Amino acid sequence: MTLHLQYMHAKNINSVSEIDHLSFDPPWPKDSYAFEINQSTISHMVVLELPRDEQSELPQAKVGCRRLFDGLFSKNGQLNSHGTVIGYGGLWQIADEAHISTIAIHPDYRGQGYGEILLAGMVGKALMLKADYIVLEVRVSNDVAQNLYRKYGFTEFDLKKNYYRSNNEDAYDMRVNFDTENVAAFHRLYKALQDKYVFVDNYSKCPHPRYG
């Protein structure tokens, strides 16, 4: 089974919104995703897809960014999709900061390591964007997510009181600086992830499909 990591497109919004509603309270409005994809100049939204037909897939080594974009759309201009969206994430580039705005896996596919693929893709994208550091917020009660973030070098930078509107739960502001040691550690983790899973990353090393 080959997973596909790629930029989010408008046709993905319904699937992403479904996962969002199953994962967060309150979820983002659909219009927010449309804005992130079509108008924002700082946003790099990503989806993780399960394949629809493995027999028709090209090997990873033979798919470059240009060929990816050429193949994203059919002759009538409609977006081609590899299959079922099982997760998504959002990354903002703000000056020298990369900010993970959201990340979620469909409940049916959690606990299988797919969230790590999304996280690694966004950290890799932040490095390609030449960010100095990357930051995210996480519930203080979410030990599973915190353990994953710590694996990738994130540490607690600050505590944001009453950050989550649904229940006024606090959030940890977690960050990792892209110094030489942390970058080398990330590349080792990414290589291990590639050895463990079969996935095509047409996100972290590819330019934004709208503004490059």
What features would you describe in this structure?
The protein is of the alpha+beta class and about 210 residues long. It has one domain (about 5-200): Gcn5-related N-acetyltransferase (GNAT) (Aminopeptidase, 3-Layer(aba) Sandwich), CATH 3.40.630. It is built from six helices and eight strands, in the order E-H-H-E-H-E-E-H-E-H-E-E-H-E. It has helices at about 15-25, 30-40, 65-70, 115-130, 145-150, 180-195; strands spanning about 5, 45-50, 85-95, 95-105, 135-140, 155-165, 170-175, 200. An eight-stranded mixed sheet has the order 6-7-5-4-3-2-1-8, with helices on both faces. Helix 4 (about 115-130) crosses helix 6 (about 180-195). The longest helix has 17 residues, at about 180-195. Residues about 55-65 and about 65-80 have low confidence and may be disordered.
What order do the helices and strands come in, and which of them pair?
Layout: E1 3-7, H1 13-23, H2 30-38, E2 43-51, H3 65-71, E3 83-94, E4 97-105, H4 114-128, E5 133-139, H5 143-151, E6 155-164, E7 169-177, H6 180-196, E8 199-202
Parallel strand pairs: 1-8, 4-5
Antiparallel strand pairs: 1-2, 2-3, 3-4, 5-7, 6-7
Number of structurally distinct domains: 1
CATH topology: Aminopeptidase
> What would the principal axes of the Cα set say about the shape?
globular
Structural class: alpha+beta
Instruction: Give the mean pLDDT.
Output: 89
Evaluate the radius of gyration: 17 Å
